[in-house]
Amino acid sequence: DTGVSQDPRHKITKRGQNVTFRCDPISEHNRLYWYRQTLGQGPEFLTYFQNEAQLEKSRLLSDRFSAERPKGSFSTLEIQRTEQGDSAMYLCASSYTGGYTFGSGTRLTVV
Amino acid sequence: GQNIDQPTEMTATEGAIVQINCTYQTSGFNGLFWYQQHAGEAPTFLSYNVLDGLEEKGRFSSFLSRSKGYSYLLLKELQMKDSASYLCAARDNTDKLIFGTGTRLQVFP
Question: From the centroid of its chain, how far is CA A107?
Fold first, then answer.
């Protein structure tokens, strides 16, 4: 059990560019969650998967955001046409029997 | 709507006891979680309550009252390394965690 891995740890991008983040969950975990966290705030739910099926997406989530989990293993989160307001820590968590393990996150800075 | 409320900041002295309160309102309820988060790091699991009452785990205890929509995290014998943010999260009826803003705890010598 190597925990939940996220890549990259840090990303700086220019406004308007597209970015993609990757999350590798704990191998036997069938649920995978994406959260966004800004400074001084708690994590905000974005979307989650059970195996390869995307079960829920936050109503607050812009259509510039898309996530996939092909074959129910790793997941990617893509943000198109980034804006400065997208600057945040993007956290991934995985779960099997109800316990949630978080990755260290990808810190995105949009300049 | 879904709402989790907890104090933004608290301070305490090394060796003391501190209680961090949390009230919640969610669409369905399947348990209350507490996480610790140091700056720039991942949240790490501290405790889980689904039934009313107190769960004790070493220096950390957590309490839940489902009828009141209320929980607290109790930290005893505070150490400097306990300075961190403490996140209260309720699991809703779709099994996702809804987080509060977090309580930033500073422990002073």
Answer: 11
